[in-house]
Amino acid sequence: MKKVLLLVLVFSLVLSMFAGCGLGKSGYELALVTDLGTIDDKSFNQGSWEGLKKYADEHKKTYQYYQPGEGTNAAYLEAIDLAVKGGAKVIVTPGFLFEVPIYEAQKKYPEVMFVLVDGEPHTEDYATYHTEKNVQPILYAEEEAGFMAGYAAVKDGFTKLGFQGGMAVPAVIRYGHGFAQGADVAAKEMGLAEGSISLMYNYSGDFAASPESQARAAGWYKAGTEVIFACGGAVGNSVMAAAEAAGGKFVIGVDVDQYAESETVISSAMKMLGNSVYQALEAYYNKKWEGGTTWVLNATNDGVGLAMDNAKWRTFSAEDYNTLLKAVQDKAFTINNKSDIGVTDLGLTYVNITEVTD
Amino acid sequence: MSTIFFLIQQTMFFTIPLMVVALGGMFSERSGVINIALEGIMIMGGFFSILFINVMQGTLSGQLLLILAIIVATISGAAFSMLHAYAAINMKADQTISGTALNMLAPALSIFMARMIQPSGVQQIQFTNTFRIEKVPVFGDIPVIGEMFFQNTYITTYLGVAILIISAIVLFKTKFGLRLRACGEHPQAADAVGVSVYKMRYSGVAISGMLAGIGGLIFVVTTSTNFNANVAGYGFLALAVLIFGQWNPYRIAGAALFFGFMKTISATYSSIPLLYNLPITGYFYKMIPYIATLIVLVFSSKKSQSPKAAGIPYDQGAR
């Protein structure tokens, strides 16, 4: 009997907590549901939140963010439910973790618009991809961001480069291929000899910091590599640790401006999350909503770029960057974005690629 | 020549945490408690000590901060391991299960706490590495040896060697060591001559917690710029080192060196022309430690040195 009473008490306590969240003020028109991080995580959530905030402030919309209780699909859906109850018309969900929850939510709430940043809705087993009219998925042209990083590195005087990817997923592969192609084009423009740029190239196969990644990077630096484009979550932190130990070596960060993570970060190949959220909201309110079709944002529509505000390039100036950005926007270069070929299949002549397969 | 120095320096980054954690496992198993929670304890030790560094690095830096962090790692590792000790010794629970529970609890708990404690609410805990020693004074100038062991290193490397020597002495040359081993081999006999088996087993698990905690800190400091609730499975690898080393401190050191060296080769062979030009893939180097473990197990399991009573809860009434 005691146990039953206890159970009832616990349940009523839990229920009362939920009741407290759902009600309250009615009407936050714009909502953001965070993934594992918070809105000040210096990464996806923060980038998207800033875009939403900017649009809302400029256009006098009410806005609110919701943080799921835990990182599961069920918790994400619950947070989306809360946002809808809170009066949301447009819900922004940053990160690929929302691909499955949005696949569910798009049918559950056909009248609510969703902006899915860096992903497309699909079922849990990746068998079915389907995007309803009320979802705006946004993907990025990683190869252009990588291209600009590789181009800038060679223009900055580096000739011995490295690429350390995480898992060989399409986004990482496109970054890497873009990096190699950018270096190739820059070397050609500068009149360097064929094969004069060396590129060590590896996918670690995970997104974790490990002694393996640290040692691999340390080995590359030791053998002469000057800058490594670290493109694999926490793998980058191992590369930074190696760069700090080696002294006088550099790292190019990825996705967001990673300058705060280590002194050695010379610049970062970025996805402009804020811009893309802003654009999606603008499209919705200007009745130009293109839900149902995926946006692939590139340099032309300010979807990708290099971090220049805190960059430590030696000679590559903001002016050089603007010229480069303009050229990429004007499609002056043809950048191969196929993710199902190897990096050596790109047929580069100025970059001598050493692919490390382990 | 400089390549060899580089390899040895890198090998130390792999070897020292593996060895320290495996020695921890040795104390626990020698006392009769199987401790597969090493991975989880490493994570907790790493969490508290890196958090300590993160909070204190404004006021302190360098070796003093690292030494204080080591103390924090020691205490937190020991405290966390007490959960396992209580379940395994007092409650006579299945030791594999309670160890697994700790392994699953540790990453979740550390992410949760990192988010709660840090104002930024992120799960990674950043730290600035001010601990690397370019060159040890005096020793670093010795030709050959100086460059191998006293340049580009951490104070933890020497701590690891000290732990190895102390462990060997404690285990084989002291009364405590003898009693500990007796409790792992035949606890009833130990009890009969007046040794408190519970006390001994608690001590064994506590020491394993301390060493695993330190191992977690060493692992994170040498390989990353932040703590991310993860030690990449090195706690489990340390278990393999423990078995490969047949529960003997010197053999464990040898096994850790072997594992560390092979891991270094597999990670860095791409920067060593001599190895890169061999017609062998990197996968091969990666496999060697594990193949070697299997071979050693095949040949040694008949006369395995594993403590006889490891994994069996002590029951005073049993005959």
Record the SSE blueprint.
The complex is a heterodimer of chains A (358) and B (319).
Chain A: H1 2-22, E1 30-33, H2 44-59, E2 63-66, H3 73-85, E3 90-94, H4 99-108, E4 113-117, E5 135-140, H5 142-155, E6 160-165, H6 170-189, E7 197-203, H7 211-222, E8 227-231, H8 235-246, E9 250-255, E10 265-271, H9 273-285, E11 295-297, E12 304-306, H10 318-329, E13 351-356
Parallel strand pairs in A: 1-2, 1-3, 3-4, 4-5, 5-11, 6-7, 6-8, 7-13, 8-9, 9-10
Antiparallel strand pairs in A: 10-12
Helix pairs in contact in A: 2-9, 3-4, 5-6, 5-10, 7-8
Chain B: H1 2-30, H2 38-56, H3 62-90, H4 95-117, E1 125-126, E2 133-135, H5 145-149, E3 151-153, H6 155-173, H7 175-185, H8 187-192, H9 197-223, E4 226-227, H10 234-244, H11 249-268, H12 273-276, H13 282-300
Kindly summarize this structure in a few lines.
Chain A is of the alpha/beta class and 358 residues long. Chain A has helices at 2-22, 44-59, 73-85, 99-108, 142-155, 170-189, 211-222, 235-246, 273-285, 318-329, and strands at residues 30-33, 63-66, 90-94, 113-117, 135-140, 160-165, 197-203, 227-231, 250-255, 265-271, 295-297, 304-306, 351-356.
Q: Give me the CATH superfamily of the largest domain in chain A.
A: Response regulator
The backbone outline of chain B, from C-alpha atoms, is: globular
Number of DSSP E strands of chain A = 13
Q: Provide the structure class of chain B.
A: mainly alpha
Shape of chain A: globular
The CATH topology of the largest domain in chain A is Rossmann fold
Q: What about the largest sheet of chain B?
A: 2 strands, antiparallel
Give the topology string of chain B: H per helix, E per strand.
HHHHEEHEHHHHEHHHH
Determine the number of helices of chain A (DSSP H or I, runs of at least 4 residues): 10
Instruction: Write the CATH architecture name of the largest domain in chain A.
Output: 3-Layer(aba) Sandwich
Q: Would you tell me the overall average pLDDT of chain B?
A: 91
